[in-house]
C-alpha cells in the first residue's frame, strides 16, 4: 500500500502535499494521533473523527483522505481504546455502505474486520454494523427494483457477507454472536415488503453460506416465524366470501369454471384469480407471498446441490413448533408441501410419518393431534407426487389406531369426548374421497384397510353421524359405486356443510373444518404449488367409471373437459339414495342458494368460526 | 499447552417433566448448552463432557412445575487460560500490526505488534506477510504456523485472548522444538523433545480423548514449570 495524498488543505498537517508516504509512516501517524488523546492533545484525533464523520457527497480528494484514513486505522486498531476513542468508533459504526463508493466500502470493511479481530470488545458492534446493512436505508428501498439499485445491492451485500465470513475465520465463535443479532434486527412484519424480502434473502444467504451449519436452524426457523406472523395477520374473513353455502369439494369446480371464462376473456394464466379477490390489496398477503416464493426458490437451490434433507429436518422442527401450533395457519404450511414435492421419496414420506406419529402419540395435546391429522389428510389428498404405497401405509396406521380406540370404547356418540377419534375417521374418509381408486389397487387393501374401516364406521361411536356430512356423503357415494360397504343406515344430511355433531367435535377451533392444503390462494406461491397439486376436479371418483379404463385416479390433462362431462354424468345419475350427494357434488350450486342462509343450524357468517378457504 | 484440565464434578440437572420420556437426550442437551461458553463455576470453558447418572430415581421437585432433578457425576474437559500461561495455536492472519491465532479451533487470539519482541520484523516475502526473526533466519511466523504464545488477558464473553510473543520461549513451535536447547543451553533429552513433538501433533488433530489429554496435561504442566525455572535462572 502506498498512498499519495493530494490535498490543498491537508486534514493532517504532517502529511504534506504531494509527498509519497510510506505505509509505516502512515500507520505510525495514526498511532500517534490515537495515543496522543490520552496525553490531552487531541487535535489530530479530532481531524480524524471529522474525516470519518463526513456525510453527503464527497469530492475526490475527500474520498482519498477517507480511504487513506480507514486503511491507516485498520493497521493501528490495537491502539484504539473503546473509552478514549468513543467518538471515533461511533462515527465509524454509523457509516453506511449503501451510500459509499466501492473503494470506500472496501476500506471501511477492512477496518471493521480488523476491529472485530483485534479485541473481543468490538465483535458485537462490528457484527451489528454489518447486519444493519442487510436492509437498505429508506432512500434506497424504492430503487431496489431498478437496475442501478440491484447492482448496488449486490455490491453491498456480497461485501457484507464476505466480511462476515472473514470475521468468522478470525473469530471462530462469531457466528454464535451473529445469530441473536440477526434475529433481533429482523424487521417487524409490518415493515415494507422490499425490506422484508431483502432481509429474508440475507437470512437465507447466511443459511447457505460457509458457516451455515452453525446458523441454519435459527435462520430457517426465524424465517418461518416471520411467515407465521404475516399469516396470522390475514384473517379468514379476508379470504372468505359470504357465499358460504358451497360444499367442501364443489368450490374448486366452481373456481375452475370461472377461471376458464377468465382465461378466455383476458388471457389470465391464473385460473384461481377470482377466489383471491378477498386477498387483493391485502398487504400482509402480498408480503407473505413474496417471502414464500423466496423460500421456495431457496429450497429449490438446496435440492439442486443435494442438501435439501438437512434443511428439511429443520423446517420440520419449525413446522411442528410454530405452524402446527398456530391457529389454523393459512399459507405457511405450503413451504412443507413444496419441500416434500421436491423430494417425495425422503422429505415427502418423512412429513407424513411425522404427522401420523403426532396423531397416534397420546403424549401430545388433543388439539395438536387433531391439527396434525387434519394436515395429514389434506396432505395425502393433495400431493400429486405421493406414492400410493405411502398413502396406503399412512392410512393403515390411522386405521389401526382408530380400530384400537374402538376396541377400548363402549360408549355412545360423544363428539367432545372422542374428538380425536372422529378427526381420525374424518381424515381416513377424506383421503379416500380423493384416493379411493388407487388405494383399492393395493394388494392388502381388503384385509388391512377395508375390513377394519368397516368395523370402525359401524361402531357405536357412530363416526358417520359425527364427521362432516359433505365428506361422509362423498365417501359413501364412492364406496357404494366401488361396492365396498353395504351401509344399513341412510344418511339424509341434505346438503348441510356441517352437522351439529361435527361442530361439537371440531370445538371452538373448528378443527373439523380445517383443510390446511386446500388450494393456495397466494398468486405467486400458487404457481410453484400448482404442478404438484391435486385439485378436486382432477380426481376420478369411483362412480366415474364409464369414461375410460385407466386406473389412474388423477387425470391431469383432461381436467377441464372432464368437468363438463362430469356435470353431465351427474345430471343422469339417478340413484335415489345419492340424491343429496348429487347436490353436494354438482357443479352449479343452484339448489342451494337461499335455503342455506335461513338454516337455523348455522351461525351467521360474520361471527362463525372460520373454516377452510374454499369450503365456503 | 497449558490451560487444559479435566475436572470431576457433581451436578444436578433439572429436567422439565415433558422430557421424562427421553431424559437421556434432555441431559445431553442441558450439558451441551455449557459447551464453548465461559462458566464461572468451573472457571473455564467446557470443551467436552462425559457423565454417569448416580441414581436411577430422579427427585421430583414440588412446585408449579414439578421439575425432575437428576444427579450426575460428570467429567468435564475445561479450557481455562490464565495470564502468563503458554498456549499454542495456529496463525490465521498476519498483518503489519498483529498476528491472529486460533487456539483449539475455536478461541481467537491476537498478538499486537507492541507485544511482539523486537527480534521479529514484519516482511512481505513473495506476497506473503510474515514475521521473521532477525537472529535466527529460519524462525518465521506466517499463516499456518503453529505458535506458542503467552496469555496477557482473556475476554471471557467471546473467549478472545490477547497474547504476547515477548518471552523468548515463545514463537513457532516447530522452530522452538528444534532449537530451544541451543538457546537455553540445557541438557534437554531427546526423549522430551519427542514428547513435545507429540504434543503439537495432538494439537493438530484437535480431538483427543479425555484420558489422553489429562495425562498429557500433566506432562505439560511439569515441563512448563521446568522451562520457567530455566528461564528464570
UniProtKB/TrEMBL annotation, chain A:
Source taxon at top rank = Eukaryota
Organism, by scientific name, is Parasponia andersonii
Which stretches of sequence are listed as region Disordered?
A: 594-616
Protein's name in the database = RNA polymerase I specific transcription initiation factor
Family matches, as InterPro entries = ARM-type_fold (IPR016024), RNA_pol_I_trans_ini_fac_RRN3 (IPR007991)
Keyword Protein biosynthesis appears in the UniProt entry: yes
Show the stretches that span the lipid bilayer: none
The record's Gene Ontology cellular component field reads:
nucleus
Q: Which GO terms describe its biological process?
A: transcription initiation at RNA polymerase I promoter
Its family remark reads: Belongs to the RRN3 family.
Kindly list the GO molecular function terms attached to this UniProt entry.
Answer: RNA polymerase I core binding; RNA polymerase I general transcription initiation factor activity; translation initiation factor activity
TrEMBL record, chain B:
- What keywords is this UniProt entry annotated with? DNA-directed RNA polymerase, Nucleus, Transcription
- This protein is called DNA-directed RNA polymerase subunit
Q: Tell me the leader sequence span.
A: none
Compositionally biased residues, Basic residues: 217-233
PANTHER family, from UniProt? Answer: DNA-DIRECTED RNA POLYMERASE I SUBUNIT RPA43 (PTHR12709:SF5), DNA-DIRECTED RNA POLYMERASE II, III (PTHR12709)
Question: What is a biological process (GO) this protein takes part in?
Answer: DNA-templated transcription initiation
InterPro entries assigned? NA-bd_OB-fold, RNA_pol_Rpb7-like_N_sf, Rpb7-like
The subcellular location is: Nucleus
User: What's the source species for this entry?
Assistant: Parasponia andersonii
Q: What does this protein do?
A: DNA-dependent RNA polymerase which catalyzes the transcription of DNA into RNA using the four ribonucleoside triphosphates as substrates.
Q: Looking at the UniProt record for this protein, which Gene Ontology cellular component terms does it annotate, in alphabetical order? A: RNA polymerase I complex
Work out whether the entry's keyword set contains Cytoplasm: no
Annotated stretches, region: Disordered: 188-233
The reply on keyword Transcription is: yes
